[in-house]
């Protein structure tokens, strides 16, 4: 039903567009013809993508939010996923009677790209052995790396996050949260400063508010930011604080997309009136997962090399004959401790992957439910 209606609308729109162009060839003008027929109002505008879910987009202009679809040229002319609009992108939109179509993506000043290894299990456009690139967030100015002072503390992971931020073009800022739970945070903060040359490192507590001023001083009102870090470190708490703080600064105008508590809105780019924008997409939430996967691959490349020498492709390094990993442990070439560390990280990643899949299933169910109505 819905699809049919949409289809009809699109055909009508296209017909009307043609008529408009025939009438005067000028976009943005309403023309009356002799029969009293009022040609549709059309205009080209600029906006920002604040929501994306598969082919469904939402675009915010200076004064409105539109549901948007992609123009046909994206289907036929783009080469890879990377060319499709992502949350944070500035786009040109074509409006016909309130219907919005994304025409083009403006050049990005920074971009978080997720490279997904093609396992060969799923058929992807690039074919087996290639990597698929997907834009997680675009035009991010600053990446706030959040890490807890209460024990969730891993220098290697922080280094990965820093690299991710630099690769994207965003400027990293490190927030060490839950300062109130750590009686002597100085040594930990110093250790992080040692791996984070020149990057601001801020001890922060959501409970006492300590460090918030220092963080605010690092941000411009026009910044677009992402918060990355492990689960439970306080990203949501800080997001809400940043959004409401930015609202308080100007106070009077209405928020377009967020009302302080960001969990209640469907938008993925949350914006305070004075301009500060926070991108919080499912993809951004998974940044931890890919940072960890990369850490596992890079830090334990020796174990990866051994695994390749195991007799069986799917060796679990348990009781299988011809296991190169167990042989290395027995010969002392690989320490038990290092292998245990590897297994621990691998388990954490598997856990996060399961969590991610559960979330995806839940999202799919919700969507099915939504479509039925
Ligand atoms: N004591 C203390 N608790 C905090 C602080 N910041 C956050 N918390 C608490 O830590 C818990 C987790 O915080 P969240 O903001 O949900 O963490 P998150 O990083 O968004 O977690 P995910 O949504 O799982 O990614 C909540 O119970 C917060 O109230 C802090 O500075 N001090
Ligand atoms: Zn093995």
From TrEMBL:
Species per Swiss-Prot/TrEMBL record: Fusibacter paucivorans
Cofactor: Zn(2+)
Designated name of the protein: Small ribosomal subunit biogenesis GTPase RsgA
Cell compartments where the protein resides: Cytoplasm
Domain (EngC GTPase): residue spans on this chain: 138-285
Gene it is expressed from: rsgA
Gene3D superfamilies per UniProt: Nucleic acid-binding proteins, P-loop containing nucleotide triphosphate hydrolases, Probable gtpase engc, domain 3
PROSITE patterns named among the record's database cross-references: ENGC_GTPASE, G_CP
Residue ranges of every copy of the CP-type G domain listed in the record: 132-287
Binding site for Zn(2+): 310, 315, 317, 323
Assembly notes: Monomer. Associates with 30S ribosomal subunit, binds 16S rRNA.
Cofactor comment: Binds 1 zinc ion per subunit.
Keyword Transit peptide set for record: no
Family classification: Belongs to the TRAFAC class YlqF/YawG GTPase family. RsgA subfamily.
Pfam family, one: RsgA_GTPase
Entry keyword set: Coiled coil, Cytoplasm, GTP-binding, Hydrolase, Metal-binding, Nucleotide-binding, Ribosome biogenesis, RNA-binding, rRNA-binding, Zinc
InterPro entries the UniProt entry points to: G_CP_dom, NA-bd_OB-fold, P-loop_NTPase, Ribosome_biogen_GTPase_RsgA, RsgA_GTPase_dom
Superkingdom to which the source organism belongs: Bacteria
Keyword rRNA-binding attached: yes
Protein's job: One of several proteins that assist in the late maturation steps of the functional core of the 30S ribosomal subunit. Helps release RbfA from mature subunits. May play a role in the assembly of ribosomal proteins into the subunit. Circularly permuted GTPase that catalyzes slow GTP hydrolysis, GTPase activity is stimulated by the 30S ribosomal subunit.
Major localization listed first in the record, in broad terms: cytoplasm
Coiled coil (UniProt feature): 342-372
Residues the entry annotates as binding GTP: 177-180, 229-237
